[in-house]
Amino acid sequence: MIPVVVLIEPEDEYVASHNVTFRVNATDADNNVKNVSLYGSWNNSVWKSVDVDTTLGNGTRTFSEVEIENGTWVWNAMACDVDGNCVFAEQNYTIQLNSAPTVGTISCTPTELSYISQPNPADNYAEVNCTLDVEDLEGCNSLSTLVGRIWHSSVTENSADSGLDHYTNDSCSKTCSGETGTVKCMFHPRYYAEAGLWSVSINVTDNMDETAKAAEADAFAIPAYYSSINMSFSTELGGVFQRIGGGSFAPGEYSDYLNMSITGYINRPINVKVHGTNIECNYGGALTYADVSYIRYEKDTLDYSNMCAMPTNADSTCSSLKDNFNLRNATDSGPNSKSIYYMLQVPTGVKGSCSTTVYITPVQR
Ligand SMILES: [Ca+2]
Ligand SMILES: [Ca+2]
What we know:
Elements (H helix, E strand, L loop, with lengths): L3 E6 L4 E3 L3 E8 L5 E11 L2 E8 L5 E8 L4 E11 L4 E3 L4 E5 L4 E2 L3 E3 L18 E8 L7 E10 L13 E3 L2 E7 L2 E8 L8 E11 L4 E12 L4 E9 L5 E9 L8 E7 L5 E7 L2 E5 L2 E5 L4 E4 L9 E2 L9 H6 L11 E9 L8 E12 L1
Parallel strand pairs: 2-9, 19-28
Antiparallel strand pairs: 1-3, 3-6, 4-5, 4-7, 7-8, 7-9, 10-12, 11-12, 12-16, 13-14, 13-17, 15-16, 17-18, 19-20, 21-27, 22-28, 23-24, 23-28, 25-26, 25-27
The structure holds calcium ion (2 copies).
């Protein structure tokens, strides 16, 4: 009698991403199977025996972890008995091995962003488009997942999305022609995004979950925008506001030193407490805020890093100032004066005309 071969695994038209294990069953009514050979077409498209199992008799043969080139191939198994009767399974099966996609270099336009102006600053964003050449031997259309990211140099690719410094694409699309194509990802960084150099990455994933990524450092720049800052001062008694200082600054820049003079006309020495309101910035009606602690103050130190941060609560003012301001009594020769010095580091993340009010409260020593 001649043997009978049945293909068990993998099923016909199976798609694999790695080495493949084949299982076939060979039986013979005489129980005299001598060997079973696995055949495939993946060796330069030549149909040939890939492996031989010489176990005698009826039973299942396993060909483990067979290495197969990318592509779609035909396979079968042949059993021979001791009498020289050889037979294949009735029908060939096909198997497909997947290749990972490959990618080129990302390029983005424009390389320096500019922002749309009025009338709708709350929605104000710039558009940057980044493109990437891709290839997949199973066809560019097999790329099913496309993800683009852009990030400021102060964070990393995997940081959380933030309007300030990290964005995932608004959209990514592909244009395909056979195995190759182009992926284009669009981003909309907001008007208050951090100035400086931004990097980009694009991930592509094929329908077998194999991925490829391209990244480009310093792909485009966001220019520094300028804020105009006004600081208003008042004494809590009397409520007379005096607008001093201000000007136009880039985020991160320092203002000039501002000097508020306190004059004592009374016969008691005084200290002072100060506090301020958070900085409010208005850009065509869209409001953003920054903490008042960007303002620092001292009575005699002109070094921003060693000045006290302005609090919002008058009871928690810089103790060195409160306890040591020490404005002396007025005397026969006239009143005494002392100055408080202020300095502002312009906050990042805000845009437009910003204002804040600082209150000065005399305290009897
Ligand atoms: Ca036989
Ligand atoms: Ca593929």
